[in-house]
Amino acid sequence: MMQLQVLLVAGTHGNEINGIWLFDEWNKSSFLINTHGVKTFKVIGNPEAKKAGKRYIDHDLNRSFQKDSFLSVNSSSFEGKRASELVDLYGETGENPCQIALDFHTTTASMGSCLVVYGRRDADLALASLIQNKLGLPIYLHESDQKQTGFLVESWPCGLVVEIGPIGQGLLNSRIISQTKLILETLMEQIHQVNNLNLFFPDNLIIHRHIKSIDFPRDEEGNIDGYVHSSRQSMNWQELKKNDELFSKLNGEIIRFEEDQPYIPVFINEAAYVEKNIAMSFTKKELWNLKKEWKQSLIDLIHQK
Q1: Facing residues of 41 across strands?
Q2: Rounded alpha-carbon distances, angstroms, from residue 243 to 61, 215, 254, 262
Q3: Are the C-beta atoms of residues 131 and 190 closer than 8 Å to each other?
Q4: Average of per-residue pLDDT across 210-223
Q5: Exposed, middle or buried: residue 169 (CB in 10 Å: 0-12, 13-18, 19+)?
Q6: Are 243 and 188 in the same domain?
Q7: Model's pTM, two decimal places?
Q8: Phi/psi class of residue 170: alpha, beta or left (left: φ > 0; alpha: ψ in -120 to 50)?
Q9: Does pLDDT of 238 surpass 90?
Q10: Helix boundaries (H) for the chain
Q11: Which residues pair with 276 in a beta bridge?
Q12: Which of 19, 63, 109, 124 has the fewest CB atoms within 10 Å of its CB?
């Protein structure tokens, strides 16, 4: 039976330094993090961006894992080469094959701690359900967004992103560090339990399913001419209803939410998303029953021969 190996990534964005700092300290003292005996490889995703104190050098690394295009679309960028390198080193058929990838991020938005799942892979949903059951973390299901693709964890059979905020880029924060450590150790514990077939899956999980993202108000020349309304700022995970305030302009104009059905915004005013023309994303909160095939997919993945 193939040994279970998990890839742990911090610093996919070079200016998100709390996970990087935690990994550096962990390298100095191996006892700082309890991996429950699970074999791990911890890497800094974008070391050059870390040195430069920037999110990325040429291109967002967490949009560079495009299937079938490592050697074409991204070959000229540092991040394209780095994506290929990570897959070659730790991918399913790499030098040190890992079955699971866990990618630790921070956000400037007031998101608290949450999990991000890309698409509806069975093993991802099963693992996310175990963590939500233990820690109560929201699960943001990011799908149906053709402008946002090529995420790191999608290149592994199973993978989750951990997002924790708010924290300014390039800053260390005790709460962020302690939350990262707690979630990392809980993930390791639950993976260990699955490996030993000593596990308890919940009956259901709460999903915040991505619907769409919206941009800031802009003038005729494409410049931002409005800002997130004071009543909306920091109100991630709070339901939006028709006529609720979204944006303000200096002339007193208020732009309101005009949808008939309520949505729940996330990543409100995330600094790194301004360049992506995203002021916030809308989600729909749903209660999903946990399917047997999800559980079995995770068990089979971890116990593959």
Answers
A1: 7
A2: 37, 18, 10, 10
A3: yes
A4: 96
A5: middle
A6: no
A7: 0.95
A8: left
A9: yes
A10: 18-28, 47-52, 78-90, 122-135, 174-195, 292-302
A11: none
A12: 63
Q: Rg for the chain (alpha carbons), in Å?
A: 20
Question: Where does the pLDDT of residue 74 fall: very low under 50, low under 70, confident under 90, or very high at 90 and above?
Answer: very low
| Domain co-membership, 174 together with 277 | no
Same domain? 227 vs 132:
no
- CA nearest neighbour of 272 among 14, 86, 44, 83: 14
**Number of domain units in the chain:** 2
Q: How far apart are CA 66 and CA 84, in angstroms?
A: 10
Tell how far CA 295 is from the center of its chain: 21
Residue 3 burial by Cβ neighbours in a 10 Å radius (0-12, 13-18, 19+): exposed
Q: How far is CA 164 from the centre of its chain?
A: 9
Q: Are residues 184 and 73 in the same domain?
A: yes
Q: What is the CATH number of the domain that holds 247?
A: 2.20.25.160
Q: Are 236 and 110 in contact (CB under 8 A)?
A: yes
| 277 φ/ψ sector (left φ>0, alpha ψ -120 to 50, else beta) | left
**Could you tell me if 132 and 139 are in contact, meaning their C-beta atoms sit under 8 angstroms apart?**
yes
Closest to 94 measured CA to CA, from 7, 19, 20, 169: 7
What span, in angstroms and rounded, lies between the C-alpha atoms of 130 and 194? 10
What pLDDT band is residue 73 in, cutting at 50, 70 and 90?
very low
Q: What is the pLDDT of residue 69?
A: 52
The pLDDT mean for the chain works out to 94
Query: Which two three-digit tokens encode residue 267?
Result: 């990543």
Beta bridge partners of 210: 283
Does 198 lie in the same domain as 62?
A: yes
Q: How far is CA 297 from CA 54, 98, 125, 236, 250, in A?
A: 37, 16, 10, 32, 53
| Cβ–Cβ < 8 Å for 43, 7 | yes
